Amino acid sequence: MYDGAKTRVRTAGGDSDYFSVSTGLHQGSAFSPFLFALVIDAITHHIQEEVPWCMLVADDIVLIDETRRGVSERLEVWRHTLESKGFRLSRTKTKYLECKFGVETTEAGVEVRLDSQVIPKRGIFKYLGSFIQGSGEIDEDVTHRIGVGWMKWRLATGVLCDKKVPLL
Question: Domains plus CATH for the chain?
């Protein structure tokens, strides 16, 4: 399909000559996450909803609904849309977090599913560097941030407390 592909660069000074494309984008490239997010956004724009009901961050998709059944329905729409374009949702990495903020659930026995597979429930998620707990508490996040702070302090003390390093 891409054998013998050629392209050119368009700039304000004019277009370059055509040249062969022999190497694609490397997986470790800094451009890869942006390109992936751009493609996912383009192929799913018609099923995306307003924040916070649907959020795309790097290669993660966050879908929110008020019921487990609603989450299952959203997952199915996303699965169908992505699979129709040659992508697939990872069934091993997909998890869900149920937050109970004083509201009684009326969905006893309802499971979150992706296709026919039951999605495992988590009690805590790490999202954009913060821990989100299903209980609504923040102790895990605070504990984590304190630990990170101490770790950074230990890294810095080697230089800050070194008498060989001048202060000025």
Answer: 6-160 (3.30.70)
Omega of the bond prior to 52 within 30 degrees of 0, cis? yes
- In 6-120, at which residue ranges do the beta strands (DSSP E only) sit? 6-7, 10-11, 14-15, 19-20, 54-57, 60-63, 96-97, 113-114, 117-118
Q: Name 63's bridge partners.
A: 54
Could you report the per-residue pLDDT of 12-59, keeping only the tens digit for each?
A: 899 999 998 887 776 677 888 888 889 999 999 999 988 888 988 877
79-95 pLDDT, tens digit per residue, is 999 999 999 888 889 99
Threshold 0.70, pTM exceeds? no
What DSSP state is assigned to residue 103? P
HSE at residue 116, side-chain half, CA atoms within 13 A, is 0
Report residue 84 as tokens: 């129709």
